[in-house]
Amino acid sequence: MFGRLRKVSWTQEKIVFLIAIAMFCVFSFSLNGFLSSGNLITLVRSVSVLGILGVGMAILVIGRGIDLAIVAIYAMSAAWMLQLGNQGVPILLAMPIAYLFALSAGLLSGVLIAYVEMPPLFATLGMASFVYGFARWALVPLFVVYMPPSGSGIAWIGGGFVFGLPTPILFFAIVALLGFAFLRFTKPGRFTYAIGDNPAAARISGAPVRPVIVLQYAIAASVAYLAGLITATAVASMDTAAANSSLIYDVVLVVVIGGIGFSGGRGGIRNVIVGTLLIGILLNGMTIMNIEYTLQNIIRSVILLAAIVIDSVLNPLDEQTSQQGDI
Amino acid sequence: MKKRNAFATIAIGMALSGMASHAIAAGMDDPRRADYFKVFDGKTVALVPSTMGIDLTEGWASALRQQANRLGMKLEIRDPHLSADVGAQAITALISEKPDVIIAHNLDVQSYAKLLKRAEDAGIHVIQVAMRSNYNSDAYVGPDWIAVGEAETQAVVDRCGAGTSGKVAILVGQPTAGSDSGMLKGAENVLAKHPEIKLVANQAADWDANKARSVIATVIQQNPDLCGVVGFWDVMDLGAAAAIKESGKSIALVTSGGGEQMACDNVEKGVFQEEVAYHVMDIGRDLNDVIQVVLESGLPAGKEKIVVYSPTTKITKETLRPGLCWSVKNLEK
Questions:
Q1: Cβ contacts (< 8 Å) between B329 and chain A: which residues?
Q2: What is the mean pLDDT of residues A288-297?
Q3: Rounded to the nearest 10 degrees, what angle do helices A91-114 and A70-86 cross at?
Q4: C-alpha span between A309 and A143 (Å, rounded)
Q5: How far is CA B230 from the centre of its chain?
Q6: If you measure CA to CA, which chain B residue comes closest to A232?
Q7: Cβ count near B101 (within 10 Å)
Q8: How many angstroms separate the first and last alpha carbons of chain A?
Q9: Which candidate from B172, B222, B238 shows the least CB-CB separation from A236?
Q10: Closest CA relative to residue A52, chosen from A187, A168, A145
Q11: A46 Cβ under 8 Å from any chain B Cβ
């Protein structure tokens, strides 16, 4: 049976997309109000921050990297921005200051990986603890930081509407579009695929491997900062617990589940969108069905594991990947 | 002459002693005072909060620090940053360091239960604050969660009677936490008496405002005539408030929390219709008193089973007054 199935090229992206469509159909028929435009907007909105972080992560994974610090940067840079606002710094000044913090964390990770040649997994794992620890110690004394009254001018970033669409969805669309353009049309974007496919070959053929890697981490950090800004303005507070939460796994998940392999060099932004939508449909449907919290976690992990199992049956490791290994 | 002298001496002596006894009456020493201070001098109190940096734990730490300074005790804080693993390690380490009292703010009812028993077996008094575990140690100090859940749900039921849809959602933090399981029980108690109220959703948001926003947004989409939300923690419920505001509907949001200035500000702005507040500084005071009781009793650890429920207050637009809330910013360092 699998033999015949293999003739159609069943990429993981397609499998996940089919599962997403199937669930979408089931929910549309079985759940009242699921298909309403209001609910669909809520659905996409609830995962847009996840999707935005996913785009940042996708660029790294395609280049055979990973950034486990992306969520720490997301939470702590936004928290510091609010904290600065609370200390009386004008919010429009606090924003670039906090961005510099996010950017320097990304650059530092990039340099450690590209020039010191640390494995990305360890470098960014350490960076995640460092960003959280340093920010809590030196910058943000409180666990939950509230939006200062002076921040009302930027509340539209996470809480506004444009043409009836919530701004986070719009930002997700813009970031996805920019990510797509970067990967498809820019030199560093094309080099990202080359580096992900075979770093040594990319270097020999003259690609500026090290600067491109640093650039990737800087982009991911910038994307994380934007996502933090959206969250902080949407709920008028930032909970630094996010830095240590399971959000980082969700971010890795939407990338991997969408079909971007850890072996690098493959996939695109479309995969992230598919993965994000799957998570969004799942979460939304389960909330409507009022499924209990613990059971939700179980269902979610079973469906995600199933998608990966189907993929590894239909797309066994090829010779190259099994020799090089995944991340 | 001699006799007269003797009389005079006695008279003077009596007068003097009278004066002296007068002086004693003006300022009498309390024989128990020295013993009192001796009990506490050099003792160590260790606090294992859920995490520092939130209004609750910062308030308690401030209260504990003041008492420790006053009575010559040492206060140690081991901050697990909301991680049950790190918290368990901290308690394990404390068991071998043998402080006199451990104050545990349990993340859930299970994680520390065995460790707290071990601590008491090792002779350390264990006081659980606000979030209890399945193990009943020397003392529990904190809100009566079932009563808090009842009060909150009743407040929503009162606003969602006849003339409304009667549809209500409950927003839990973590269902396995001592606080939330209690509040849920309280909510059930009230809902059982009000069959006209329809519970349309009972969802957990991990104490995370962002998740709370998504959950409540979805619930409102599904039930556009939703009448009220019972939220289990004000910090998280800010997310529910954001979802309600975006929907443009008037939905009653009743929350509970530590009565920090943020709560009063948001009740004033109409973000929360009501907060059932367990004042953090009240709990801090009760905590300090129970520390004194367990140390003064001289009983070995684990012998007492004290429960002290701290009072709650109702914060609404009607009850708002200056000083009703306390402020993290103004805590004594």
A1: none
A2: 84
A3: 150
A4: 39
A5: 20
A6: B210
A7: 24
A8: 31
A9: B238
A10: A168
A11: yes
Residue A166 CA to chain centroid, in angstroms? 19
Are residues B210 and A240, on separate chains, in Cβ contact within 8 Å? no
Does pLDDT of B28 surpass 90? no
Closest chain B residue by Cα to residue A239: B208
- pLDDT score, position A1: 46
Average pLDDT of chain B to the nearest whole number = 91
- The answer, for A295 touching chain B at a CB cutoff of 8 Å, is no
pTM for the model stands at 0.82
Backbone Cα Rg of chain A:
20
pLDDT digits (tens, 9 = 90+) for A129-184: 999 999 999 999 888 898 998 888 899 999 889 988 999 999 999 999 999 999 99
Pick from B175, B218, B328: CB nearest A293: B175
Tell whether the model's pLDDT for residue B20 goes beyond 80: no
Give the residue carrying structure tokens 């996470």: A158
Nearest alpha-carbon partner for B78 in B106, B111, B46: B46
- Interchain contact, B217 vs A46, CB within 8 Å: yes
Rounded Cα distance between A243 and A20, Å, is: 28
> Looking at this protein, which amino acid is placed at residue A235?
V
Q: A225 by DSSP, 3-state: which?
A: helix
Q: Are B191 and B132 in contact (CB under 8 A)?
A: no
Chain A residue closest in CA terms to B170: A290
Q: Is A241–B246 a contact, with Cβ atoms under 8 angstroms apart?
A: no
Token reading at B237: 């419920």
Helix (H) or strand (E) holding B309: strand B306-309
Contact A39 B54 (CB under 8 A): no
B272 Cα to chain A: minimum distance (Å):
14
Q: What is the pLDDT of residue B328?
A: 84
Contacts of residue B50, Cβ cutoff 8 Å, sequence gap at least 6:
B56, B57, B80, B82, B87, B105, B106, B107, B131
Query: Which token pair is B327?
Result: 């402020």
Kindly list the domain boundaries of chain A, sorted by start residue.
51-272
Residue pair A243/A75 in contact by the 8 Å Cβ criterion: yes
Residue that has been written with the tokens 């429920």 in this structure: B309
Q: What is the interface pTM, i.e. ipTM, of the complex?
A: 0.78
Q: Which residues pair with B47 in a beta bridge?
A: B77, B103
* Strand ranges in A69-209 using DSSP code E only, listed in sequence order: 144-146, 161-162, 165-166
Query: Does A288 touch chain B if contact means CB atoms closer than 8 Å?
Result: yes
The rounded distance, in Å, linking the Cα atoms of B228 and B330 is 33
Structural class in CATH, domain B34-142+280-309: alpha beta
Q: Is there a contact between B204 and B172 (Cβ–Cβ < 8 Å)?
A: yes
Q: Which CATH number fits domain B145-277: 1.10.579.10, 3.40.50.2300, 3.40.630.30, 3.30.2130.10?
A: 3.40.50.2300
Q: Where are the domains of chain B?
A: 34-142+280-309, 145-277
Residues in chain A within 8 Å Cβ distance of B174: 293
Is the Cβ pair A39, B218 closer than 8 Å?
A: yes
Residues of A in contact with B203 (CB under 8 A): 287, 290, 293
